[in-house]
Amino acid sequence: MKRALEEQYGGEEELPQTNPGFNNTPLKFTKYSNAYMLVYIRESDKEKIICNVDEKDIAEHLRIRLKKEQEEKEHKKKEKAEAHLYTIIKVARNEDLVEQIGRDIYFDLVDHDKVRSFRIQKQMPFNIFKSVLCTINLRGGARCYLPLELSIKQINTH
After folding, report:
1. Which domain of life is it from (predicted)?
2. Which of 32, 49, 82, 101 ranks highest by number of CB atoms within 10 Å?
3. Where would I find the beta strands (DSSP E) of the chain?
């Protein structure tokens, strides 16, 4: 019974040596398991065992963790609800082209996964987005970027 309870919570286990003459270092590995346990309670004992849990009964570090998880969950829910209002724009700078072409990429302009991306509102005018880019990049004025529209086209060759 004790072993069954201890194994529910994981821990380290050491495997017995199969070749005692070759490697004297025992092989240790971490066991993972869930800590759920099924408990049956008699109806007559229910009032004695089960009680209400107040916030003060929960450890401080768990309260902080639960609060953080709840905030993250609400943030993701809000993002999902507002996703249709935003779009992602990827910006490849001249430095990105110089850095990537000839090293990582030979037959494309730039690796879009390695350039900076911005999540902006779909209703934002382009000149405002351009000025935001220039202030982030700290390169003078709204003329610091030359916008080029790129689109991915499928080439159907057979």
Report:
1. Eukaryota
2. 101
3. 11-15, 27-31, 86-91, 116-121
pLDDT digits (tens, 9 = 90+) for 30-57: 666 666 778 888 999 988 888 888 888 8
Query: Using CA atoms, how far apart are residues 73 and 81, in angstroms rounded to an integer?
Result: 12
Structural domain tally of the chain? 1
What is the predicted pLDDT for the residue at 140? 47
Q: How far apart are CA 7 and CA 32, in angstroms?
A: 9
Contact in structure between 83 and 121 (CB atoms under 8 Å): no
**d(Cα 129, Cα 142) in Å, to the nearest integer?**
10
Tell me if 8 sits within 8 A of 37, measured CB to CB: yes
Q: What residues have CB less than 8 Å from 125, skipping those under 6 apart?
A: none
State whether residue 75 is helix, strand or coil: helix
Q: Write out pLDDT tens, residues 104-158.
A: 555 666 777 888 888 888 898 888 888 888 777 645 444 566 666 656 666 766 5
In a domain, 2, yes or no: no
Q: What is the number of other CB atoms lying within 10 angstroms of the CB of residue 145?
A: 16
